[in-house]
């Protein structure tokens, strides 16, 4: 028996990068998986990969900044599968901008995507999980929410908010057997980070000490699997940091 057999998981930002890797990891572990992001065509490709593992899957085009779309995403999941056991609020994106260049419009957009989206996803899933009397919510923050990130101040502020949102929901919903935890990765070797030129995979090989290499999406997905599994049943309200070598250089705590 796989560790997530019979479970239903919903992952936002599930069409690429960390979210896609979590979705595939959950499918391999036995879960039925719903993936959500804005572009349906990208989601459909992930659904095909999930179904190749013999798992049920559903793709729901969703803008996590819009309450009605988030509510619909959760409703479609429950209508189709009858339950929701695991919610992963992963959708988010940073926009590198110096503080004096951040417009109010950009500030509001970054906070809406990275913080309000997590709030909306957690509340929509929480309503279902309270009725079920169990559930697991996993929020993806960033080390930018723990250490200063002056080149992405609005993103950093949003991710710090995700961490505190996690802790407050964990305290509020513990009586309903709902675990709420947060993963904060450092710079991770996703397609986007590589395209930005921040990290290049060819810089690292087996001769580089493991803890001095940047994490890859599977590192985050493996931790998300643990937090979704029965092994984490007594863990809630926690922040788990996956450091990159940049985090060490900046003296993160």
How would you portray this structure in words?
By secondary structure, this protein is of the alpha/beta class. It has one domain: Rossmann fold, CATH 3.40.50.720. Helix content is 44%, strand content 15%. It has helices at 17-28, 40-51, 67-81, 104-132, 153-173, 191-196, 217-228, 245-249, and strands at 8-12, 32-37, 57-61, 86-89, 135-140, 178-185, 239-242. It has a seven-stranded parallel β-sheet with strand order 3-2-1-4-5-6-7, with helices on both faces. Strand 4, helix 4 and strand 5 form a beta-alpha-beta unit. Helix 1 (17-28) runs parallel beside helix 2 and helix 1 packs across helix 7 (217-228). The protein is globular. The relative contact order is 0.15. Residues 248-253 have low confidence and may be disordered.
Structure, briefly:
The protein is an alpha/beta fold and 253 residues long. Helices cover 44% and strands 15% of the residues. It is globular, with a radius of gyration of 17 Å.
């Amino acid at each position: 028996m796989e560790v997530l057999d019979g479970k239903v998981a919903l992952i936002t930002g599930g069409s690429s990068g960390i979210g896609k890797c979590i979705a595939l990891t959950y499918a391999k572990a036995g879960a039925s998986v719903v993936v959500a992001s804005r572009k349906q065509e990208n989601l459909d490709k992930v659904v095909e990969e999930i179904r190749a593992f013999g798992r049920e899957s559903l793709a729901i085009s969703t803008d996590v900044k819009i309450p009605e779309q988030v509510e619909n995403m959760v409703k479609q999941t429950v209508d189709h599968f009858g339950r929701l056991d695991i919610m992963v609020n992963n959708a988010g994106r940073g926009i590198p901008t110096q503080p004096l260049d951040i417009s109010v419009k950009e500030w509001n957009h970054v906070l809406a995507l990275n913080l309000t989206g997590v709030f909306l996803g957690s509340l929509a899933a929480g309503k279902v999980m309270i009725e079920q009397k169990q559930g697991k919510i996993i929020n993806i923050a960033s080390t930018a929410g723990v250490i200063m990130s002056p080149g992405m101040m609005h993103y950093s502020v949003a991710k710090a908010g995700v961490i505190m949102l996690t802790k407050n929901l964990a305290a509020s919903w513990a009586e309903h057997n709902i675990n709420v935890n947060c993963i904060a990765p450092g710079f991770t070797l996703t397609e986007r980070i590589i395209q930005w030129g921040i990290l290049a995979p060819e810089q690292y090989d087996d001769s580089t000490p493991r803890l001095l290499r940047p994490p890859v999406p599977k590192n985050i997905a493996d931790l998300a699997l643990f937090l979704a599994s029965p092994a984490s049943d007594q863990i809630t309200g926690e922040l788990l940091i996956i450091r990159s070598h940049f985090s060490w250089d900046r003296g993160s705590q």
